[in-house]
Specification:
Elements (H helix, E strand, L loop, with lengths): L3 E7 L2 H16 L3 E7 L6 H7 L6 E2 L9 H19 L3 E5 L3 H12 L4 E4 L14 H11 L2 E4 L2 H9 L7 E3 L3 H12 L3 H15 L6 E5 L9 H17 L3 E6 L4 H11 L5 E4 L4 H10 L3 E3 L3 H8 L4 E3 L7 H5 L3 E3 L4 H12 L19 H13 L1
Parallel strand pairs: 1-2, 1-4, 2-3, 4-5, 5-6, 6-7, 8-9, 8-11, 9-10, 11-12, 12-13
Length: 378
């Protein structure tokens, strides 16, 4: 039997993390011939695939696409068109809300190649927040052949937009698969010792302190005004709770990292860390007391590991996690930030009681996606 050719488009670190379980599941099946395509939207994408022992089959040239969105999109569309016409795939997989996912999906649609959207149906309902990610999701879902949604709420979002129910498949979120895979590796003592050694080089004995994780990269927070408010908030918390440290993990975008370093480098009890490998990040996250972030994926990983997230955004597309009391929306407000975090730190136990531990899936979402895909292509 002729194998079905599937191109998996990966452009960023989060896409590499969330699509790696799917790539591995495709490779385990004799029904598929998979092609891992790296767009190099972020430079470290291949490095994150390597964590899961995955090598790209196709790589676009390295380009700086952190700047002009329209120019970057036009370049990616041409690159995808050329690859699709050369490989002639039976199906394309894209993930999330990135420029890579948008370009990969639009190019597939225009070439009349069926494609699936992994992590479909997430909505803030505000087209411009986050920008451009919310609009990217809506466009991709409208033209996708299959929308692989992580939750019932994501399914409901698509049904409200008149997406045909037959195109929607509930699978869970593949990031839970990725965390499960990494945590399984923690059972290997040599693997764990290597992570601890790497982190001790960065943190020394601070690794064993009380700490929370802070990350920031969204476009709406890439300005000195917002970062100054966030820095003042964190400074106030650390001043009152002086037994705590803040581990600021920088983003791979150098412009964002420079802004963060400029704003936070003189704050007592803030330790600035370079972008971390995924196993090191999960190791720290599992041992943290809580998280302050504007990231989407970290909301999901924190839920699975039982950590409360203080979200420095006005809106989240992961509303299930707000309802589950895992995510507390703060926006950019000094009064709300200090009050909420201070109240949280007065508790004796910071762990999160998970009312539904399978809200985002059982850790085997990739297998469900491959099963649906096989049925679609038969």
């Amino acid at each position: 039997m002729k194998k079905r050719k599937v191109v998996v488009a990966v452009g960023t670190r989060p896409e590499a993390i969330k699509l790696s379980p799917v790539i591995l599941a495709l490779k385990r099946s004799s029904f598929f011939k998979s092609f891992v395509l790296v767009s190099n939207q972020q430079k470290e994408t291949e490095k994150f695939l390597k964590i899961f022992d995955i090598k790209p089959d196709i790589s676009f040239p390295n380009r700086d696409i952190h700047g002009d969105l329209l120019s970057s999109l036009s370049v990616l569309l041409k690159d995808f068109k050329d690859i699709y016409r050369r490989i002639k795939p039976d199906f394309i997989l894209v993930q999330g809300d990135t420029l890579t996912a948008l370009a990969g999906g639009i190019a597939a649609f225009l070439e009349k190649i069926p494609f699936g959207h992994v992590e479909a149906g997430l909505r803030t309902t505000n087209t411009f927040c986050p920008f451009p990610e919310e609009a990217n999701r809506r466009i991709i879902d409208e033209i996708a052949s299959i929308c692989f949604v992580p939750t019932k709420e994501a399914e409901a979002n698509l049904l409200k937009e008149n997406i045909d129910k037959d195109r929607i498949k509930i699978t869970g979120n593949t990031v839970i698969d990725a965390v499960r895979i990494i945590k399984d590796h923690f059972n290997d003592r040599d693997f764990l010792l290597k992570i601890e050694k790497n982190l001790k080089k960065l943190l020394g004995n601070f690794l064993f302190s009380n700490f929370f994780i802070f990350t920031c990269h969204r476009r709406e927070n890439r300005n000195l005004k917002n970062l100054k408010i966030i820095a003042d908030n964190i400074k106030s918390v650390l001043k009152k709770h002086s037994n705590f440290f803040c581990f600021l993990i920088l983003h791979s975008n150098p412009a964002v990292s420079e802004l963060l370093k400029k704003t936070f480098n003189k704050i007592t009890n803030v330790k600035i860390l370079p972008p971390l490998n995924y196993p090191e990040f999960i190791f720290l996250l599992e041992r943290s007391s809580f998280v302050v972030t504007d990231s989407g994926g970290i909301q999901e990983e924190s839920y699975f590991l039982g950590k409360t997230v203080f979200l420095i955004r006005d809106e989240t597309e992961r509303k299930e996690l707000v309802k589950a009391d895992n995510v507390i929306e703060l926006g950019i407000s000094k009064e709300i930030f200090f009050k909420k975090v201070d109240s949280f730190l007065k508790k004796e136990d910071y762990s999160l009681e998970k009312s539904n531990r399978f809200l985002l899936g059982d850790g085997y979402s990739a297998e469900k996606i491959v099963k649906f895909l096989k049925k679609f292509l038969k």
